[in-house]
Write a structure and sequence with these properties.
It contains 4 helices and 11 strands. It has helices spanning 60-141, 150-161, 179-188, 198-201; strands at residues 22-28, 31-37, 51-57, 166-167, 176-177, 206-208, 218-221, 229-235, 238-244, 248-253, 261-264. The strands form 3 sheets. Strands 6-11-7-8-9-10 form a 6-stranded antiparallel sheet.
């Protein structure tokens, strides 16, 4: 046996190697707890328990702050989306309202245009009616002896030369006439031979309306074929005729004694 066999070794027991260390961790009471088992320490370190426990401040506060910020960001994003949606909805409603107002304005404009067109049409018809009536009046009143030419001028000139002469029943001139004798003598001046009596003169030529008279038309009172009086239209709404024994041969407006009809022989 070696002399040193019973001499106690002055070397300290070997500490567990690094490979035998174990780490335990946990959170207790708001602190992060780490448990280290079998940690190797320097040889000159004081003896410590094999198992050590160290406490570290927890990171819960930082995590909570970050989560709060994330929540605020998410809330802001949601608010922005909601606000944008409301704006889009408002724009959509405004656009629809604008389209509706535009359609109503177009409809109103069309109605106004139609109304104005109708008023213009009525005004045109009224103007045409007035022009027609004016033309009829002009026909009744024109042409006068001063504008008549040719045979009508000769006819009117003869009739005016007889004004003031006496009315004598059955007379044919030259100092007195009855109604049909005067018309017969007047038309003889222009080469037209008329029957002697009023009844026959009222059926000569072509019947014409009183609204379409021309100078030289023979006017009659009574019915065609049985007229009791005749005269000659001289224009300007007037006629000349041998009226009766009281007045003799006179010039009168048509409304003095409106005739029944007229015939045209020129």
């Amino acid at each position: 046996m070696s002399p040193n066999a019973l001499i106690p070794s002055h070397r300290k027991p070997r500490r567990p190697s690094a490979s035998s260390r174990a780490l335990r961790a946990g959170v207790t009471g708001g602190f992060l707890t780490l448990a280290v088992t079998g940690a190797t320490v320097p040889a000159n370190a004081a003896e410590k328990p094999v198992s050590e426990t160290q406490e570290m401040p927890t990171i819960t506060t930082a995590l909570a702050t970050s989560a709060a910020r994330s929540a605020d960001t998410a809330e802001q994003v949601a608010f922005n989306y909601e606000r944008q949606a409301l704006q889009d909805s408002a724009f959509s409603h405004a656009a629809k309202a604008a389209e509706k107002h535009k359609a109503e304005a177009v409809k109103k404009a069309k109605a106004e245009a139609k109304k104005k067109a109708e008023e213009a049409r009525k005004a045109k018809e009224a103007a045409e009616a007035r022009a027609s009536r004016s033309s009829e009046r002009s026909t009744l009143s024109a042409p006068s002896s001063s504008t008549a030419t040719g045979s009508t001028a000769t006819l009117v000139s003869f009739l005016k030369a007889q004004l003031g002469k006496a009315y004598v029943l059955g007379s044919s001139g030259p100092s007195s006439y009855d109604c049909s004798g005067l018309t017969q003598a007047a038309f003889n001046q222009i080469g037209i031979d008329l029957p002697r009596v009023s009844q026959d003169q009222s059926t000569q030529g072509t019947q014409v309306g009183l609204d379409n008279l021309q100078v030289g038309d023979i006017l009659y009172w009574g019915s065609a074929g049985s007229a009791y009086h005749v005269g000659v239209y001289i224009g300007d709404g007037k006629f000349i005729g041998a009226q009766n024994s009281s007045t003799g041969i006179v010039e009168r407006p048509l409304d003095y004694d409106m005739p029944t009809g007229a015939v045209r022989v020129l």
